[in-house]
Amino acid sequence: QVQLVESGGGLVQAGGSLRLSCVASERTFSMSAMGWFRRAPGKEREFVAAITWIGGSTKYADSVKGRFTASRDNAKNTVYLQMNSLKPEDAAVYYCAADVLLKVVTSTADYWGQGTQVAVSS
Length: 122
Description:
The chain is mainly β. It is built from one helix and eleven strands. The radius of gyration is 13 Å and the shape is globular.
């Protein structure tokens, strides 16, 4: 069973930066992409970013374009989410997910992490 473990969350002031990490216990044939999602209190989970293991192609939600950057380290089975210029509305629990790209971007991935909390003070 694939396990995903996120880390790097915390409290930051508005305008600050955080880098989240997600380590996969293994990479299976179907895990061609990794994604980042977030869920704020009282809101539904929303897509943030996705990246493919091969080629490093990325996709972002409009709300984070230009501020967040997804990257990966294939040798470490790790993906990152660099978050800059954080806003109070970015506060949420951030989750990583793994599957084929289509399932990742449609929030139907088979594998999910437990999440890491990001808080942004104004």
